[in-house]
From TrEMBL:
Family to which this protein belongs: Belongs to the OMP decarboxylase family. Type 1 subfamily.
Name this protein carries in UniProt: Orotidine 5'-phosphate decarboxylase
Coiled coil start-end: none
EC number: 4.1.1.23
SMART domains: OMPdecase (SM00934)
Orotidine 5'-phosphate decarboxylase domain residues: 6-231
A Pfam short name: OMPdecase
Binding of substrate, residues: 12, 34, 61-70, 125, 186, 195, 215-216
Alphabetical list of Gene3D superfamilies matching this protein: Aldolase class I
Organism: Pelosinus propionicus DSM 13327
GO molecular function terms attached to this record: orotidine-5'-phosphate decarboxylase activity
Quaternary organization: Homodimer.
Superkingdom, taxonomy of origin: Bacteria
Catalytic residue positions: 61, 63, 66
Length: 239
């Protein structure tokens, strides 16, 4: 996979005007975008239609987490939008993830569309050990990431979202075909913001991440196109 297919830019803005401006500015340098809650709740499915018209891949990052039937029905509807990748929270459990995988597969067959990849969020990259123990877990955070990755794989997920710091351990536990998507990417010198378990683009790739999700280091940069160029150079230098 080439470096520009590995980079997913998080479109964390809340209007179509900002989307058009950013996507126009980044041009051919970015082929894969992430649409999350902020944007989808603001503008709805028109952003998916727009990005598909621009021939971009789309990770629709809505992190579904509910009872199995509700998640399955929700994902069946989302499958019709034509995103490349969808996701759920692994903490919803084995039955929920299994229902999600079945629903996506059946809907794709029904509408004769390519099945979107379905991945599960393990432990949010904003969590550190302190936050983690604060919500009542006694197990080591990174051990929990590996546990949830194995569970997700058993339930039929194509991969997981985890921090770049756990990517190598996930590969070891689940194999190299299992997709590891890593937010929490910060080029040297970039603001860390609310992220905790971070790595540089090169560090994440060295650890075996398949896709790097990067938002503010690009979208809040004075020159987003230059920021992408610098990140892709760092990624290519490693390849
Ligand atoms: O564990 C997770 C899961 C999802 N995200 C999302 O990734 C981007 C990261 O944006 P930055 O601006 O580069 O921090 C953002 O849309 C999150 O919702 C995550 O960060 N961690």
């Amino acid at each position: 996979m080439s470096s520009d297919q590995r980079l997913i830019v998080a479109l964390d803005v809340h209007s179509m005007e900002s989307v058009r401006q950013l996507v126009g500015q980044l041009g051919d340098s970015v082929s894969y975008y992430k649409v999350g809650m902020e944007l989808f709740y603001s503008v709805g499915s028109q952003v998916i239609t727009y990005l598909r018209q621009q021939n971009k891949d789309i990770f629709l990052d809505l992190k579904l987490h509910d009872i199995p039937n509700t998640v399955g029905q929700g994902l069946a509807t989302l499958t019709q939008l034509g995103a490349t990748m969808l996701n759920v929270h692994a903490a919803g459990g084995f039955s929920m993830m299994q229902a999600a995988a079945i629903a996506v597969k059946n809907k794709a067959i029904e509408i004769q569309a390519r099945r979107p990849k379905l991945i599960a969020v393990t432990v949010l990259t904003s969590m550190n050990e302190n936050e983690w123990s604060g919500i009542g877990y006694n197990v080591d955070l990174s051990q929990q990431v590996i546990h949830l990755s194995k569970l997700a794989q058993k339930a039929g997920m194509d991969g997981v979202v985890a921090s770049p710091q756990e990517a190598a351990q996930i590969q070891k536990a689940c194999g190299s075909e299992f997709i590891v998507v890593t937010p929490g990417i910060r080029p040297n010198g970039a603001a860390i913001n609310d992220q905790s378990r971070i790595a540089t683009p090169a560090g994440a790739l060295k650890n075996g991440a398949h896709h790097l999700v990067i938002g503010r280091p690009i979208t809040a940069a004075a020159n987003p196109r230059q920021a992408v160029k610098d990140i892709l150079r760092e990624m290519r230098d490693l390849a």
